[in-house]
Design a protein that fits this description.
The structure is a homodimer of 447-residue chains.
Chain A (H helix, E strand, L loop, with lengths): L11 H12 L5 E10 L7 E2 L3 H9 L5 H10 L4 H9 L5 E4 L5 E2 L6 E6 H6 L1 H25 L3 E4 L8 H14 L3 E2 L2 H7 L9 H5 L4 H11 L5 E3 L5 H17 L6 E4 L4 H14 L6 E4 L5 H10 L5 E4 L1 H4 L8 E9 L2 E2 L14 E7 L5 E8 L7 E2 L2 E5 L2 E2 L6 H13 L3 H4 L9 E3 L1 H16 L1
Parallel strand pairs in A: 6-7, 6-11, 8-9, 9-10, 10-11, 15-19
Antiparallel strand pairs in A: 1-5, 1-12, 2-4, 3-5, 3-17, 12-13, 14-15, 14-16, 17-18
Helix pairs in contact in A: 2-6, 3-4, 6-7, 6-13, 7-8, 7-15, 10-11, 11-12
């Protein structure tokens, strides 16, 4: 089961609304903004990701003949609409924060300016693409800050929510500063470094554990990582000490071992001691097995000799916060600002810009969300990325995006770098924005 | 970004292990079983799903020329292995619980019997496919039991983890008893009923809310559902009462309204009262907006006049438990039972069967996990589904699977139907299974 690349990957109501708009000629310019309403309790900031996939989606947006035929056969839509749909393309403008930019609630990270039916039709998949990678990059950024330069590898494909999720999580975590992934196809598609060790089943398939190690070492002498915890971790470490001279004689050296269960702090210490005594000082120790923020922090704080982490489920499902409360909302139509006032979900009208200010130490100190044309001090975070349906600049490399993330994370205020969500960050709403919101409400009351 | 259908959608270590196996001629018959180790705290049972996608994956398992060329160019593998890989197909046997079967921890829901390299190579994607749909079907089953026959519709594509996740969540929730989905492509691919209403942006795009309602009604007179909470829910309900005679004159009737924010219990009551007084007794009230178990239970318990639920994020991310602690483990190789004893992750050896016993009331009362050949009273839950790489029976319809789920849920013991995880369920390990485990340990100690 793989997800076909189809414009039908959307909510039915988008098509129903598009039909109603087109029937009435409601093709005025609409402005929609994508933003996160509030942070999950365990996040102090978010890291924008997914823009490249969003741009690719918009550039190629089209209903195939086959899609149109199926819609016709469904009986849900009129022929006139389907004819219009067949030739519909996305021809709008897009402004966005580059991937790898830190952001906060109520700050739009993407703005679409397009004829209303186009801007509406792309909503569902656009959210789907921006939400997920932003979710995972934001989670991965926590691990990157916690790991303090220890190696981080994504092991999460098996429990990711489908195939796309595994691939996009590999990309998003690499953007945030992970060193690589175990997912082969992600390595291929995105040119992300690949890491692979061995599984318990390999050890189990042999009658003798040392024999399994030797067989694997012979087959994969380079970047050799052996798994120690199938039966008894310390006993396995001692077997490696015994085995090493035979491997060395054949020019094979063990790069690292992986511990996947038990008390990882205690075991890393005892394995380190066994290795150091046995002349295996160069063999690194990697930890895996249900690791998340708390376990990683405990290992780092303990000073235990763990050189890297393999992280699966907690990363690729963002397990403590598997969704962000995000939205894509109409803020202007046909030249007039719009807002909704649904209880607890009010939005602010107009085309917005986010301005970021930095202190004398180079760290971010406050953001201002204002109307686009307001003159506000600070660095503008939203940049034009598409005009009339076309990408404005060539795609950045993942290396460029990683560098931006790294700088973004380095410039976070210290309490947020320490991953303390309680610290908060000052986001101000520019004066003219609140005035506009009041004016929109007054106009609606007068109607 | 869509997930290409490639055998490279796997972990690197699977390929490394396969190379080592093939280099040594380790092609004996391996038995792997997929099971869940423990229930999340908020689940009392699980519902098996994803088998059809798993079978389709195994039946078509192959590395394309393009995959092989890329692997060769990566320099990570030898030419002899890549040649073997190019012709490798899955030719094993599979036993499984049918989709829509309730199951519990330590009960295998799928068993693969195949030459070791094949059984190993398919691990990652097999887990990825079985885990996610089982996760979502199990979550959806809670909603189905809670909703007590109110309509349930999946609205979750936008915050699902990628495109596959949205499609497969629509399928898994429909299996569990949801009435349908908003995801058009899921409707097309799986023949699931589609539901669509309207968004706030539609209302916002018009200067007047009533004008927006009328425009939408004219465009989509059938199955008309209007969204009431863009500005003021009760005011919108009164506007509909005023509008109704004009719509009726044109033969248009409102089927339902949707409330998406605020105090849904209080608002459903006041909207119901406005409608009943205004002659709109037939108009149903649907609730949506961040609903999960607790909100759904509160609405149902309140007796509030809510006729159906649109559920998004909580369903498609299984938000309270976004992953299951599941595994695919080697239990036999080359005729000898195997187990791992990693701390906290011990497995039981041998080919297993799950036997289910029912009480005089027709409800399930206990399961026994035994070795396949043990004579145990009860209904065997694992059935042969593939032989020598080929599917044994034509795929069941989703209707068949839904019927099985419905029966499964109806036969749950009452405390589990009441969604009380504390109640537990009795799963016994058959005597010969524990004896075998002890014997495997003894044999290993003797080695």
């Amino acid at each position: 089961m793989n997800c076909p690349d189809s414009a039908l990957l959307t909510d039915l109501y988008q098509l129903k609304m598009a039909e109603a708009y087109l029937a009435r000629g409601e093709q005025g310019t609409a402005v929609f903004e994508f933003f996160v309403r509030r942070l999950p309790p365990t996040r102090g900031f978010l890291l924008a990701a997914g823009l490249e996939q969003a741009i690719a989606f918009l550039e190629s947006y089209a209903f195939s003949r086959d899609d149109i035929d199926w819609l016709a056969s469904s009986g849900m839509f009129g022929a006139a609409f389907l004819e219009q749909l067949a030739s519909l393309r996305f021809a709008g403008d897009v402004h966005a924060m580059p991937e790898g930019t830190v952001f906060f609630p109520d700050e739009p990270i993407l703005r679409v300016t397009a004829p209303l039916p186009q801007a509406q039709l792309v909503e569902t998949r656009l959210i789907n693409l921006l939400h997920f990678q932003t979710l995972i990059a934001s989670k991965a950024a926590r691990h990157v800050l916690l790991a303090q330069n220890r190696q981080l590898v994504d092991f999460g494909l098996r429990r990711a929510h489908g195939g796309d999720a595994g691939l996009l999580a590999a990309r998003a975590s690499y953007i945030a500063g992970y060193d690589g992934t175990a997912t082969v196809l992600a390595g291929r598609l995105f040119d992300i470094p690949l890491f692979g060790t061995m599984a318990h089943s390999f050890v189990q398939a042999f009658d003798d554990e040392a024999e399994a190690f030797e067989a694997f070492a012979e087959s994969h002498p380079e970047d050799l990582v052996l798994l120690l915890d199938t039966y008894d971790t310390e006993a396995a470490a001692r077997k490696l000490v015994t085995l090493t001279p035979r491997l060395r004689a054949r020019g094979i050296s063990i790069k690292a071992v992986r511990l996947d269960s038990g008390d990882l702090i205690a075991l890393s210490r005892s394995v380190r001691a066994i290795f150091d005594e046995g002349g295996l000082r160069d063999v690194a120790i990697l930890a895996s097995g249900g690791l998340d923020d708390a376990e990683m922090r405990a290992i780092v704080d303990s000073g235990g000799p763990v050189d890297g982490f393999g992280v699966g489920t907690s990363l690729t499902t963002s397990i403590d916060a598997p969704a962000l409360d995000c939205a894509y909302k109409l803020t202007e139509y046909a030249g007039r600002p719009r807002r909704k006032r649904s209880i607890g979900k009010e939005t602010l009208p107009g085309r917005k810009q986010v301005w970021r200010r930095f202190g004398p130490d180079g760290r971010m100190c406050a953001d201002v969300v204002s109307l686009e044309d307001d003159a506000v001090a600070g660095e503008a975070q939203l940049q034009p990325v598409m005009r009339a349906g076309k990408r404005l600049l060539p795609p950045p490399t993942l290396g460029d995006i990683r560098a931006r993330s790294k700088e973004s994370l380095a410039r976070l205020p210290e309490p947020l770098r320490a991953l303390d969500p309680a610290a908060g960050y000052h986001v101000e709403r520019g004066g003219s924005l609140l005035t506009l919101a009041r004016n929109v409400d007054r106009r609606r009351r007068e109607v």
